[in-house]
Design goal:
By secondary structure, the chain is an alpha+beta fold. It has four helices and seven strands, in the order βααβββαβαββ. The chain has a single domain, classed as Gcn5-related N-acetyltransferase (GNAT) (Aminopeptidase), CATH 3.40.630.
Length: 170
């Protein structure tokens, strides 16, 4: 994989069969990056049925490309009429540090605002995803009480209030 660190990643919404196959590959790499299994989240079914709950008009699934290579992904799904959930932020290790994660997060935030959600929620593991937590904080996410059950010890729930957000996404 050849990744150029001085190139801003190009982000597309995954729609074609080829893009969805790239998303499946990235989701699998995401799952394999943890010290635990995602079976409690019905992960295999989620991957098999992409875009599934991430489909428009209430969701989204995006892939970041660098030099023609799929290097990262992010997904957004509805929790309710007013609340969306951010899922599956992942950037391949060789592509980290070039801004792909921030570009993906901003893409999902802007989409959630356009859809009309009032908040975006997420759960993460600070001990395994410290850089992601710092990224979420940098764009305005704050810690909240758990909004759903997560059996993984140390899970952190966060939320971004889209109605109060001005624009720290430039």
């Amino acid at each position: 994989m050849f990744v150029e660190s001085n190139i801003t990643p190009f982000v597309v919404q995954a729609e074609s069969a080829e893009q969805l196959a790239a998303a499946r590959d990235l989701f699998e790499a995401y799952a394999n990056s943890f010290s635990y299994k995602l079976c409690f989240q019905s992960f295999a079914d989620e991957v098999a049925t992409l875009p599934g709950l991430y489909a428009p008009p209430k969701g989204g699934l995006w892939i970041a490309f660098n030099n023609g290579v799929a290097i990262g992904c992010i997904a957004l799904r509805p929790l309710s009429e007013d609340h969306a959930e951010l899922k599956r932020l992942y950037v391949r290790s060789k592509a980290r540090g070039a801004g792909a994660g921030k570009t993906l997060v901003k893409t999902a935030i802007h989409a959630a605002a356009r859809i009309g959600y009032k908040t975006i929620r997420l759960d993460t593991l600070p001990h395994e995803m410290g850089a992601a937590v710092r990224l979420y904080q940098s764009v305005g996410f704050v810690e909240i009480p758990p909004y759903m059950k997560n059996p993984v010890e140390g899970a952190l729930c966060m939320e971004l209030n889209l109605t109060a957000m001005k624009t720290n996404l430039a």
